[in-house]
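In the current project phase, the collection of sequences with tokenised folds has grown. A representative record is quoted in full directly below:
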Amino acid sequence: MPADSPTVEQGVREMILLMPRLVARAKRTAIPEQLRDFALKPRHLSLLALLLYDGPATVKTLAGKLEVASTTVSLMVGDLSRQEILTRCEDEQDRRRTIVSISDRHRDAIEEWLAAGADAWRAVLEPLSPSERRLVIDALRTYERETMKRTRQPD
């Protein structure tokens, strides 16, 4: 094994030391002035990121991508719509469905809020091969799943 290749236990130690710093940095990301009065939480960040990067979507689509119940997303969308951060409109092709999007008024501030994290991940992932990117993403997903299982946290 090369000298710079950690054993499993060395890797565990390194990650246990690193993860709290990553979480702390993410939590300290400054919320743009325009959004500070809205009491936005980390759970909103994921929803807003999906809408920003993937575009308008239904609650069901958002719930699937966020891997949470539709009722959870519906509550977040309702809250953010009342604050005029999100807009809801009828789907032209199926009037029973509602399409959710970021309001034009707050789009730039949301882009600013997400930019540092997106730029950092871009710097991490760009030099990697597609299979290495997949490995990083899969490792983080597995960590999340295993942590939830071992701590009996709900989804």
